[in-house]
Amino acid sequence: MNTRRERKKMQAKKSISENALRLFLTKGFMNTTVAEIMEEADLGTGTFYNYFDSKEDVLKYCLGEKINEVRHTVEEIQKSSLEPSQKLSEILLTAGKNFEENSQLISMFMQFRRQASGARRESPHGSTFWEILVDIVREGQGKGVFRKDIPVGIIIEMFMGLLQSTMNSNMEMPFMDNLKQKLYLFLEGLGVKQ
Questions:
Q1: Where is the HTH tetR-type domain (predicted)?
Q2: Do 116 and 59 touch, CB atoms closer than 8 A?
Q3: At residue 191, what are phi and psi to the nearest 5 degrees?
Q4: CA–CA separation, 88 vs 132, rounded Å?
Q5: Tens of pLDDT along 48-80?
Q6: Residue 90: pLDDT above 80?
Q7: pLDDT score, position 131
Q8: How far apart are CA 87 and CA 78, in angstroms?
Q9: Is 122 strand, coil or helix?
Q10: Where are the extended beta strands (E) located within the chain?
C-alpha cells in the first residue's frame, strides 16, 4: 500500500524526469543542467541526487518508462488469441509507433550510449522482448505456419532488424509505410509454402 510519503516521492521523481526530458528535448542534453531541471521541477537542487545519480541516469529512466509502456502492450499481444504472424506484426507496428513518437529521446540515448565507451552498454530493454519473440516464433513453428528449418534466433534477429533498418533508412517514404513494406516481405518469406 502506498503511503502518503511514498506517493510524494513518486510524484517528485516523476516531476524531475518529466521536466528533465522536456529540457533535454528543447535545450539539448549537454546544454541542460541539473539546477535547471530542479528549478523547473520546483525542487531544491540537492533533491535531484535523492532520485538520480546523474543526467544520464534520468535519460535512462525516461527511456525505461517508455520501454515499460511498450512491454505491457507487447505482453498483451503475446497473450492474445491472434495467430503468430499477426502477433509479430502487431509487436513490430507497436515498436515502430513508439520509435516514431519518441525518436528524439531514443536518438539522444543512442548518442550518449555511443559516447560512453567505458560504460556498460547493455540494451535498455534487456532480454524481455527477445524472450517474448522466441515464444511467438516457437508457437508459429509448432502450428506449422513458420518454417522449422530456420533457427529461432535467426528469425528473431531478422525480425528485429526490420525496425533497425527502418530507423536508419534514407528512403523518401513515411516511416510506418517503410516498416509495413519490410514486415510484409519478411512474413511472406517466413511463411510455410502450402
A1: 10-70
A2: no
A3: -65, 150
A4: 10
A5: 999 999 999 999 899 888 888 889 999 999 999
A6: yes
A7: 92
A8: 6
A9: coil
A10: none
Among 9, 26, 52, the domain-final residue is: 52
C-alpha dihedral, 11 to 12 to 13 to 16, nearest 10°:
120
What's the number of domains the chain is made of? 2
| Helix/strand/coil percent split, the chain, to 5 | 75, 0, 25
pLDDT tens digits, 103-140:
888 888 777 777 665 555 555 555 778 999 999 999 99
Q: Which grid coordinates belong to 48? A: 535531484
- Tens digits of per-residue pLDDT, 154-186? 999 999 999 889 988 999 999 999 999 999 988
Question: Which residues, in sequence order, are bridge partners of residue 146?
Answer: 191
Q: 80 and 144: one domain?
A: yes
Q: Domain residues for 100?
A: 56-190
